[in-house]
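Escalated from tier 1: uridine-5'-diphosphate-glucuronic acid holo job.
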Amino acid sequence: MASKIAVIGTGYVGLIQSVGLADFGNYVTGVDVRPEIVERLSSGEPTIFEHDLTEYLRRNLDARRVRFTTAVSDAVSDAEVVFIAVGTPENGDGTSDLSQIRAVVDAIKASASASTVVVTKSTVPVGTNRWISQKLNGGETDRRFVVASNPEFLREGRAIQDFFHPDRVVIGFDDPDMPAARDARALLEDIYRPLYLTSTPFVWTTFETAELIKYAANAFLATKITFINQMANLAEAVGADVQTIARTMGMDGRISGKFLHPGPGYGGSCFPKDTKALAATGDSVGVDMSLVKAVITGNDAQKARTAEKIIRLSGGSVDDREVAVLGLAFKAETDDIRESPAISVVAALLEAGATVTVHDPKALVGFRAEMERRGFADGRIAYHTDVFACITGAEAIVILTEWNEYRNLDLPRAYTLMHRGVRSESRLFDTRNVLDPDAARKAGFVYIGTGR
Ligand code: UGA
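Tier 2 regenerated the structure:
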């Protein structure tokens, strides 16, 4: 049976959730406070870059299964289920800023009807769902809201695919055995029916466990990356090959080769924020989270090391040299530059006196805005939509994002376009190990990978 659903917040999580649940046959109203976003989405234009999203958005708009509004009350008043999908950005001290969650909870309390199920999709620290439940059900109210914690595991760039083929769905209740929770469970099973039918594992648990599952998963993946980055640095120092090490580690089924790709450090809107929030949660209850803290500092060090290595291996200085940076997004297949290693690496190269030219297939606009916000005016960075224009005249190339366009780069052509003065040797820094070192050397480059 199709349900009436409200999704509050139409960022990454909320937009994919809106479109995905509509595609399952539900009637979804997505809410965003920003009128320009509501207008764009209503006209079938996604506000983020994500594979297949345009098609899914338009199909469900045409079928009138999804619509967008700025008014919470309009979406919530007749919804059976309300998903909270607003941002929980980082405070300066690593804790999560829950002001958007608080505002949404007040708005839901003001306009939702009796027996609405309120589901938290946003990543929230332990205790938040219990607080939401108390807030909604406290005071003078004849309504009983059932609250559920349903953390999100989408990857940017694969969000549509992850929505329709999740590894698992996690749903936490205050007390999963309470009759009201059992009714809410039946409703959520119905909303997610297509996943239920394809045998996706559903984990029914408590608030606190559901909240921690999300942080545990992200922190563990961040740990794997930081581990392999430090192994790469060690491999470099002793003359070993991290690629072979990672591949062989992955042959052990207990370890798995996934998330063992070394690089310039992890970025994005999730790992940096969630690791810090998890460490802050440990501090708040007096529990040692030293491993997670080491991952946070290790990742910051990896970003800094990437810039230092470029300078060190460029004869100790990039002053007055032109460096072409390929890849600005925090990973491939996204236009997102949040916490991208490119921000700190480009800033460090500029501070060391280099002239920097940059290219990215999707993230140029966002990167430019971020650099301007940080006070790096145009003129110090040249922005290119064509990769060969970016390379022309450069003395070194640095690949920071694993875009396929760079994996397939025409290396002989790139080499001929570079500047070759007396002091330069056409260095190619492949921080993601996406190129064949022999092919790069054959084309004339001095090839420098990570840990190989
Ligand atoms: C991550 C998780 O993978 C999702 O499961 C989760 O839902 C999401 O955070 C979230 O909390 O919302 P995402 O941030 O989209 O997803 O990106 P990932 O694909 O996990 O990559 C994160 C960072 O790690 C990127 O900078 C990537 O380049 C880096 N990475 C990843 C490596 O350096 N090496 C690897 O082997 C894998």
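Residues 123, 152-156, 218, 221, 225, 259-261, 263, 266-268, 270-271, 330-331 surround uridine-5'-diphosphate-glucuronic acid (CB under 6 Å).
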